[in-house]
Amino acid sequence: MTKQTWFMELRRILSILPYAESKKAEEYYKELYEDKKDAGLSDSEILESFGTPYQAASTVIEEYTRENPSFVPPSYNPNTGYAENKVAPTKGQSDNKENNDLLWIVLCVVFFFPVMGLYIAMIAVAFGLYALIVALFACAIGLPVAFIGAMPTPAHICAWIGVALMLIGIAIPLTVGVNFVVKWMFKGTGMLIKTIKRTVTEG
Amino acid sequence: MDAQLKKGLLDVCVLKVLEQGESYGYKIISDLEQVIPVSESTLYPILKRLETSGYVVTTPKEHNGRLRKYFTITQAGRRKIKTFLEDSEEFTRIMRFLTEEL
C-alpha cells in the first residue's frame, strides 16, 4: 500500500464523521508521516507503524463516539466498506411497526365505507352547486335572448338586464365559494389521512 | 493492565512529558517510548481528550515549510498531574495491603 492509498482509505473510512473531525485526524497522521520521514524512516516502515487505515480510523471513530454517544457508526467491513447507513431496528421496534401496520389496515377497513359515503355525498353536493352556477349563468344570458322577439319596451329591457346582472352577481361569489370548499375538501382529506397515519405509526 | 487504568496513566504520562515543555505528536511518542510504548493510534484519542478537557492547548507552528501542531500544558493540566500523584499515594497503600503476606 502506498502513502496515497493509505490516506485515501483513511479518508474514506472517516467520511462518516463530520468533516472537521476527519480532517483533524488526517492532519495528525500526515504530520506524523512527515516527522517520521524527516527522521529517516521509509514509507513502508511508517505505514507499518500506523497499522491499517481501518485500525487507525477505528480509534478515531471510537473516541468520537465516546464524546458523542448519540452517534451510531454504521458497521464496516474492510473488504466491502460500509453497510448501508441505516441502523437496524431492534426486535421491539420491529414488532411495534408490524402492530401499527395491522392497526392501520383495520382502521382503513372499518372507516372505508362510512368515510367514502360521506365523501361521495360531498362531491355530489359540489357537483350540484356547480350545476346551479351554470344554470344561473345560462339564465342570465338566456333571459334576454328568449324575449328578444317579444318587442320589449325599454322598461322590459332594463328589467331583464337587472335580473341578468343579479343572477351573475349571485353566480360569481357562489363559484368562488364552491371552489374554495372543494379545494379544502380534497386538501383536508389528505391532511386527515396523513394525521391518522402518523398517529397510528408513532403510537 | 486494565484498559481504564492504562488510559488514566497514559493521560498523565503525556501531561508529564508536556510539563517539560511544549511538544508535538512524534516527539511525545519518542519521549514516552522509554517508559511506556504508545502507538500513533493510541496517542490520538489521548491528545484529543486532553485538549477537550482543557489540560492542553494546541498551537500550529511552521516547520520545514509545513504546519506542525504543538501541545502545551495548561494550569489545569498541571493540577491534574498533582491530583493524580496524590491519589497514587492511596493507590500505593492499597497495593501494599494487597501484596503483603497476611
Describe this structure in words.
The complex is a heterodimer of chains A (203) and B (102). In chain A, 78% of the residues lie in helices and 2% in strands. With 203 residues, chain A is mostly helical. Chain A folds into two domains: 3-82, no CATH class; 91-202. Chain A has a two-stranded antiparallel ribbon with strand order 1-2. In chain A, strand 1 and strand 2 form a beta hairpin. In chain A, helix 1 (3-13) runs parallel beside helix 4, helix 2 (19-38) crosses helix 3 and helix 5 (91-146) runs antiparallel to helix 6. Chain A is elongated and about 115 Å long. Chain A starts with a helix and ends with a helix. The model of chain A is unreliable at 84-94 (pLDDT under 50). With 102 residues, chain B is an alpha+beta fold. Chain B has one domain: Winged helix-like DNA-binding domain superfamily/Winged helix DNA-binding domain (Arc Repressor Mutant, subunit A, Orthogonal Bundle), CATH 1.10.10. Chain B contains four helices and two strands, in the order H-H-H-E-E-H. Chain B has a two-stranded antiparallel sheet with strand order 1-2. In chain B, a hairpin with a 2-residue loop joins strand 1 (56-63) and strand 2. In chain B, helix 1 crosses helix 3 (40-52) and helix 1 (3-19) packs across helix 4. In chain B, 22% of the residues are buried. The mean pLDDT of chain B is 91.
